[in-house]
Amino acid sequence: MAQAFDSTRLLPTLRQWAHELGFNELGVARPALAEDERHLLRWLQDGRHGTMTWMARHGVKRARPERLVPGTVRILSVRMDYRPPDLEADDALLADNRRAFIARYALGRDYHKLMRKRLQALANRIDTAVGGFGYRVFVDSAPVLEKALARNAGLGWIGKNTLVLNRHAGSYFFLGEIFTDLPLPESEPVDDLCGSCRACIDVCPTGAITGPQQLDARRCISYLTIEHEGSIPEDLRPAIGNRVFGCDDCQAVCPWNRYAQPTDEADFHPRHGLEDASLVALFRWDEATFLKRTEGSAIRRLGHERWLRNLAVALGNGPADADAIEALRERLEHPSAMVREHVTWALERLSRPGAAAAAHP
């Protein structure tokens, strides 16, 4: 435990340090998540986590910070904007079914190491200032209800799409935490400003948002193209369109994202032309090329096999171009049964009458 200090005077300094390290906002939360724990348990009991078995394995530990890090009395929650500047509008890219849509957060370098390093730098400054304190840094690296903690820390409210919304910054930001034994003053929570809006619910291509703050991951395109390791359910493939890594539809349509601020962080800017890449070109990457082009990217954890799975679905949802058909046929004998399955499905789709003229399935 740290030596005696004036927590009220320290907090403004912490916010200044956070800004200097590239964070856009810092708040302080108490580890009180009883209602969120009940919501989590209902979600798990309904099986809405799909094949994300680690969600169930950690159980209530996710909602009890003091169990994860004994001695925790406060959580410092930070956000960092990630949307790159000057991007083509999402709907224009989604309408061009010869190109790949990749969730905006994954166009640049993986955020985990960058944010963890900067949170550690913030913790080091605090340690020097207060003469030692108990803490642990997290960036999506442990069973943490980061969105609920960000809400409790006043960084925003949890919207109907289950994302944290900030009235000044929308939702295009990453979250990170420092669990600490410092009894800092808590931040004031903000009001839920979604009102009667249901744009995110209505726009979801697969109906994964089943109600306000109710997400069935088994139908979510982000889950299907990133977290899910097996075959994508055939009835959901047409709705995926040309989304090959994640989906931002519920963010793009959110009125609060008119206030989203473009990031100045160069590491989050697009790399390797992924913001404007053709499906055929990406599908023709061999494994060595995939590993080279996705080095330092969140996409790399997919592995080449699932990358091809996702791209095969997207090609099957596009026009029956000669290049697309040729590229798919080249993978018909791929060693992976899962890749072969999705390639076969795509070729069957493209062989149907009218496929050449179809803009979207």
From TrEMBL:
Its EC number is 1.17.99.6. Cob(II)alamin binds at R62, D140, N161, V164, L175, S222, C247, D248. Pathway: tRNA modification; tRNA-queuosine biosynthesis. The active site is at D140. One of its GO terms (biological process) is tRNA queuosine(34) biosynthetic process. Keywords: 4Fe-4S, Cobalamin, Cobalt, Cytoplasm, Iron, Iron-sulfur, Metal-binding, Oxidoreductase, Queuosine biosynthesis, tRNA processing. [4Fe-4S] cluster 1 binds at C194, C197, C200, C254. It is an enzyme of class 1 (oxidoreductase). Its cofactor is [4Fe-4S] cluster; cob(II)alamin. This is Epoxyqueuosine reductase. It comes from Spiribacter aquaticus. The gene is queG.
